Amino acid sequence: MPTPVVRFRIDFANDCYIGPGKIDLLEGIQKSGSLSQAARDLGMSYRRAWLLVDSLRSSFREPVAVAMTGGKGGGGVVLTKFGELLIKSYRALERDIARASARRMRAITPVVIEHAATNAGSQRRPLTRKHRQKAKG
After folding, report:
1. Cβ burial, residue 109 (10 Å; 0-12/13-18/19+)
2. Among 28, 64, 113, 132, which lies 20 to 30 A Cα-Cα from 57?
3. Helix, strand or coil, per DSSP, at residue 90
4. What share of the chain is helix, strand, coil (3-state, %, to 5)?
């Protein structure tokens, strides 16, 4: 029986927030070292990815990523220690919330699954590729 998935965002101030999209993008940058590659991996446009990183840049006093100039190996983007801390803190809170929601929804989940199986018209926003893989394994 699958467990409920909780999606959340943290609002620090007006126009200063993080959520699953920004965190997924930061993880993609961390993995690939490239904003354009991270955007492709997430199925988003480069412009959208750039706007998300720019919103993080204008939200925090500490940078989350820095651009590396081109050269023999080419340019790229590297996460800062603060960017890594942002991911780590968000994912830890995500795990805490997932455990709490599974515990609180234990009696409700079987009814929802039964209902959803008989109501094929109900649609949820699809999980990102990364989250689908986590849900399966």
Report:
1. middle
2. 132
3. helix
4. 55, 10, 35
d(CA 64, CA 83): 4
Block mean pLDDT (10 aa), the chain, length 137:
84 94 97 95 96 96 89 79 98 95 88 58 54 56
Residue pair 56/18 in contact by the 8 Å Cβ criterion: yes
Q: Taking the model in full, what pTM does it have?
A: 0.77
The ranges assigned to domains in the chain are 10-136
Cβ atoms of 79 and 30 within 8 Å: the answer is yes
The closest alpha carbon to 128, from 1, 23, 54, 10, belongs to: 23
Q: How far apart are CA 68 and CA 48, in angstroms?
A: 20
Residue 11 CB-half CA count within 13 A = 3
End-to-end CA distance of the chain: 13
